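To: structure desk
From: M.T.
Subject: fold request, one chain
Message: Could you run this one when you get a chance? Sequence is below, nothing fancy, just the single chain.
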Amino acid sequence: MPFKEKHSAALSFLASKGIWRSNYAPPLFQFLWLLGVKMPPPHFSSFFVNFIFFGIFFGGAWGGVSLGFKQADEEEQSLIAMVLGAVFSGLFFGLGMAAHYRHSSRRYGVPRWPNFKSETSK
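Reply: Done. C-alpha cells follow.
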C-alpha cells in the first residue's frame, strides 16, 4: 500500500478510537508531512523511535533558544552548562513523550506501523 493511503487510513483509525487530532497528528508531524517526510503518526512508532525523535527535536530547540537568550543575558553561563541543559531536557522530554505514546498506543490497541493494515486493504 502506498504511504499516502496507509497514512490516511492510519489517521482515520486513530480518530475512530476517540484520540484527539492534536494528539495523533501533532503540529510538528503535520509540518513534516507537508514537507513530504514519510513518517508514521507517533502512536504507530516504537518507544525508541519516539524517544529519539522527540528528544533530539526538543533538545535542539531548547539549546537554540537558550543560546539565543545567552546573547541577550547579562549573566555569564558556560557553554557546557547550556549544552548539558539541552541534552538533559531532550532526554527527559523524549522519555516523557515516548512513554505517553507507548501507553496511549497500548490503551487503544494501535499496532506498530509495519503491522498496520487498513480495512480497505484486507
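Reply (cont.): Residues 79-107 form the longest helix (29 residues). Let me know if you need anything else for the meeting.
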